[in-house]
Amino acid sequence: MNLVNCRIHAKESLVLEPLAPLEPKPDEVLIRLGAGGICGSDLHYFLEGRVGNFVVREPLTPGHEASGVLEAVGSNAKGLAPGMKVAVNPSHPCGRCAACRGGRENLCERMFFLGSASVFPHAQGMFADRFILGSRQVIPVDTDISLGELAFAEPFAVGLHAVQRAGGNLTGKRVLVTGAGTIGALCATAAKLAGAAEVAVCDVLDRPLEVARQVGADLTFRSDQTDAGTYAGRFDVALEAAGHPRALTSCLDAVRRGGVIVQVGTLPHEGMQFPANLVMQREIDYRGAFRWGIEFDWAVDYLARRKVDVRPLLTRQYPLSQAAEAFRHAADKTRATKVQVVGAGSPVEF
What we know:
It is built from ten helices and 19 strands. With 350 residues, the protein is an alpha/beta fold. The chain has two domains: 4-152 and 310-342, Quinone Oxidoreductase, Chain A, domain 1; 162-288, Rossmann fold (3-Layer(aba) Sandwich).
């Protein structure tokens, strides 16, 4: 079996490199890639060679949302054994800085987040047939959930964290989500779990809106075909998951006075005009949501117990050997919500 490692060398340069034999140290585990979701940041690295201020300066293995099966276990990896199905946590906070000690490890000053060019040398990701991680990075799961579904733990954690930043308890509240991609749809799912009375999702494409309805959105509409005044002041909370300036403007129009906007999507790195006077005059709380913390554990638990159904979001899986084709498919939002790559020896389930 020829094992490979998927590497982005520069803009639109994706190379499959041979993978050398791997042996875990005592505190590590060797993981066979089960399924790895292609995220928006992975696409930015592939299509642009950067994500915001994070620029590819050396070959980068992408992939930070993954599941796998343990192939070998180090001698100190207690409670783990070969053959176990696992969710993989890509976050490595230092545990010592002020943010970590304050319970906000997602803001760690020395964060090492897999599949990211935010540090140099880069934090290599998980789009490889086999990879090694510290044993504390995996959560074993013994239910019948598929590897493809389990790989949604990371993006679902983003949605759960966005809801926490909005206040956590959304009982009785009306929530708008802008952007019906994977993160937007999972923000909608998380808002429903938090008790929202109504969750509306808007987008500029019909297909993502149909998927959003399948995962629980109460109302969907085309933002490019709806008069801006139709929903003015209707919502208590807006979760901006499109990462587009016009979507943020829609949120500012749509929330009531004293409402909350949570910025989840990554806005253009070149900057934008921001109507800050609206925030001031209407006392709108504008908050950021960056990755997640303990919400990853919550996401794994929700998925493992099938408290949520993410299957409508999964468009297609490709063998890792067809990674370039998978990336191109994932980039076409008229055809794809979530596209995954599957490691050698793992089944293509969808």
